[in-house]
Each structure stands twice: as structure tokens, then as C-alpha cells.
Amino acid sequence: MRRSLFFRFLAASLVVLLVNCFIFSETSVAAAFGSNKSIGGGEQPNAAIFVSKQAPAMVSILNTERLQGLEKQVDLSNLKASFLSNSGIDYRQDIQPWLGSEITLAITSLDFDRDAENGKQPGYLMALATKAPEKSREFLQLLFSKRVLAGADLNVEEYAGIKIIADYSQPEKGMLSGAVVGDKFVLFANDPKVLREAINNVQAPDLNLTSSPQYQEAAQQISQGALGVTYLNLPAVAEWQGLKLPVQTFDTQLVSLSLAAKGLLAETVAFTPEAIPTSSPKLSKPVGALQYIPPTFGVTFSSSDLSNISSSNLARYWQQLAGALSGKSEVSITNFVLPLAEAQNRWGVNLSADIFKWVTGEYAVALMSNPQQGNPDWVFVVEKTPSSPDGISRLDEIAAKNGLSVSSFTLDKQPITAWTQLAATTTKTDAKAKPSFSIAAQAYGVHTTLGNYEIFTSSLETMHEVLASKDHNFTDNRNFQKSIAVFPKTNQGYIHIDWANSQDILQKQLPILKLLKVVAKPLFDNLRSLTISNYDNSERSLKGGAFFQLDNF
């Protein structure tokens, strides 16, 4: 695989913008740019006209000035160092004076030369907008002149009126080719063939990404003032990364990144090739079930109507994403959001029939690390409906059938039902003394009724924490309140993650998170909390957002 300086910047930018891309003269190029008008609510990447509609990925920074502002909160110096390593180029002196408002990077194809004998050679393209064409030409000459002084063997050709310069001298480090196109962009690629194809895409508009109906539909979702946009052809990205897609529901995705108060907002929309019937709740405020979640819990999931969660677009998206990362086709969102899933294997509980079916109102699930126990503590709160009593009784029956005692008592004057297992223990003070016996009960689940909600917890200690936090609960969490303020008021609920208190839980569910923490270190080093919301579902798309609350914003 041929790599060079621009590709290292491309790879880093793809992650930062995640845990959590004829015969024509310079005059005709300018005319083509002039005709590329915004097709969505926000600003569109002009350089998309260079990128094929079959391209696996494209990443665009739409406002480099905002990126420089972001640098005050998130250290991006490593990205620039990676971009310019061993190039002899100084960013502030050689690039910043002419750099315009857009930087676009793309994987243009999985094999640009279509030669099976030399293996797959992905095509990489970087387009830098210029606000000072003469200075950008001087930069290109400076870059390749320094390579000549280092012994490079350059090749210069003219293609469709554009001069393309290529350095063939160090194939082991990867080829570098560049061109100044009109007075709008400086292009770099890992092979002249990639640049020639980019020029052809401008000449024939039906070949480039802006002519793709899926791209046009996705671009409608870009928010005003977005800092950057990533466009993904999901099957091609999976092939590029060597991932298998056991389940493929969504084929196109767009992610936009914006600055928001106290953090970064990433919004995404994913599209399906065929309409899929879906039913999603519409909530206009945080669910009432959150009032019974202690404010210290690290991971909280809240929404309404569990009976349809397995067939929701969110579940389908999670199955495709997690399935690709794990290589497994059976990846259920319920195994992540519902700690009771372990009961499915241990006690023979059928989640869909025994729990989800009767949870048609609001619900909330919360997790908290418990280093002493290994498994996290959990709370599951369910709004009562006419079907709730039978559903709760069914769970008590399942516990009894599995050899657990279903007993009732009071805790802090609150009636409690517990699923326990009794065990005898012995103590002996000395060899001659008779042993002393006692009976200890281990609780496998505890539940009680508060108001119009049934609360299930993993232990008696956790239930005590729930009862003690009635006057100061999760809805009072300031980080949560600030985070949900950036989302539309009408949505399908929230996932809120307190980063410091939940990393161990998340890494068990998503092992790839360890890698993301390393690659996107500037972001994760400053992450206070992550809040995710799902909204605007339809039969063809899933739209949602993730808000990264950062410490130093």
C-alpha cells in the first residue's frame, strides 16, 4: 500500500472527525466551482466535485478558522506534525498564508490502478482550498523543489490543461503527486492516476459525488456552521478496513461536526437502500423514570416502549456497526443497554417475551462500576401500564422456577421483593468447639414500586441508594442537563455516559474503544461526558447526534 505525508493526515482526520470523504481550462474549472451551490441547510464541501460517487469515504473541514479555534481546547499539534513529518515544510510559514476555508480528504477508490497482480492500491486524495493562488503555486514548487534537492526524480505532465507533478523517487515511502487546479484548490494524491480521475470527475458531473442522490439527500442534513463533514459509503469502508458486514441495513452515512457550548456536537444520518417499516417513540422531555436513577451512575439509557426496540432503526444500525467490528451476525442492542440480558442465559429469561413485551411505557436503565463485584451495579426503572402486574409476576415466577426464593420485607419503610438464594455458613472458634451455623441470603435481584414506576436493582445496596436519592436524582445532574440542551426537544430518548466513571464498563462491551482512546487521544483526554440522542427516524433513514462535553471548553 502506497502511503505518503498526506495520507497520515487523512487517517488522523478521519478519526478526529469519530470512538465518537474532458479537456478543460482553468476558466472552466472556476465555472464548475461556481455552479456547485449549497444543496443543504449548511455549507457543502466544494471539493466533492473531485470525488467519485463510488468513493468509500470523504472528510471535509469546512472552516479552517474554526479548526484553529478548536485547537485552543483540543491539542491538534500531533496531527500537523504527522502531516508535515520529514517534509521540511512549516505549517505557519508555508501553508497558513494561502490556505482557504476548506480541507477535503478522500479515499477515492479501493484499487485505483485496477491491477490484481500488485494487490489493492487505495487511491488517496487531499484538496486544500486556496485564498491566494500565487502563494499556493509557490508552495507546490517549494515542496517538490525540496524533494529534488533530496535526490527526487520528478515527472511533470499536463493533463486537461493542468500541470501534474509526481515524485517517483522513493516508492518504498509512497509516491506523491500534486497539482494546482484553477485558482480554487491545491490537490495531492498518492498517484497521478488519482489526480487525473479527480479532474475527469469535474469534467463529467454525473461521475462525481455531488450527483449522487444519496449524497444529496444526506447533505440536506448538514447543520449551519458545521466545522467538518464526513461522508461514508459503508460497504466500501468495511471492505477497505477488512471488516465483514454480517448484516447490512444501511449503506450510506454522513456525519457533521459542530462547535457547541461546552463541547462538540456530532450529528449523523444513515440511509437504507430500501424502505423498512419502523416505529419509534416521540418524547418531548426527559422520561420520568430518570427521577429514580441515582445521580452518580455512569451509563444511563432512557426512552419509551421497549416492545419495539429490537425492530427499531437504532437497533438495526447497532447490529450492523457492532457486527462489523466483531464479525458476528447476532449482535443485539439489548445486550448493551439492558444488564438483565445476563438473565437470558443464566435463568432462561426470554427478553422479548418476558420483559420487552410488557414495557410499553417509559423506562430507564443505569449502570455503575463495582470493582469489588466485577460486574456493574444496575438499575432498571419501568413505567407501570395495565400489562405491568402480569409482567412483574412472570419474572417472580421465573426466579422461583430457578430455585430462588421470592421474599418480601421492608427497607427504609419501603416494601421490597427480593430474589434470593439461601446458603448455610459455618464458623468455628477452635478445634474443640462445636461449629456455629448461620444462613446467608444472596440477592440476584430486588424490586419495588415507587409512584407509577417499578424499580429493579442488582442488589439491596443499590436499592438503598435509589431510595436515598429520591430528592437528588439523575435529573439534577448538571452535565446531563447541559448536554441534552443541544438536541431537539422531540426525540427518542438519551444515552448519557459519564466518561470517568464508565470506561471499564464500555471497554468490556466495545473492546475497540481501547484503540480509539489511543488514536483520538486529544479528544478522550478532555472528555467529561458523552450524550447520544436518536431523532427523526423514517423508513429510509436514522438520524441522531452525539454531544462530547469537554473539560476545557
Alpha-carbon distance between the two ends: 39 Å
Helical residue percent band: 25-40%
Q: What percent of residues are in strands?
A: 25-35%
Based on Cα principal axes, name the global outline.
Answer: elongated
Number of separate helices: 19
- Largest β-sheet summary: 20 strands, antiparallel
Q: Uncertain spans, ≥5 residues at pLDDT below 50?
A: 1-41
How would you describe this protein?
With 553 residues, the protein is an alpha+beta fold. The protein has 19 helices and 20 strands. It has a 20-stranded antiparallel β-sheet, with helices on both faces. A hairpin with a 2-residue loop joins strand 4 (154-159) and strand 5 (162-167). Helix 1 packs antiparallel against helix 4 (77-84). The longest helix has 17 residues, at 133-149. Residues 1-41 have low confidence and may be disordered.
Secondary-structure blueprint:
Blueprint: H1 5-16, H2 26-34, E1 57-61, H3 64-70, H4 77-84, H5 91-95, E2 99-109, E3 123-130, H6 133-149, E4 154-159, E5 162-167, E6 176-181, E7 185-189, H7 192-203, H8 213-219, E8 228-233, H9 234-240, E9 252-260, E10 263-271, E11 299-304, H10 313-326, H11 334-337, H12 342-346, H13 351-355, E12 362-368, E13 377-383, H14 388-401, E14 405-411, E15 414-427, E16 436-450, E17 453-457, H15 460-468, H16 478-484, E18 494-498, H17 503-509, H18 513-519, H19 521-524, E19 527-535, E20 541-550
Helix pairs in contact: 1-4
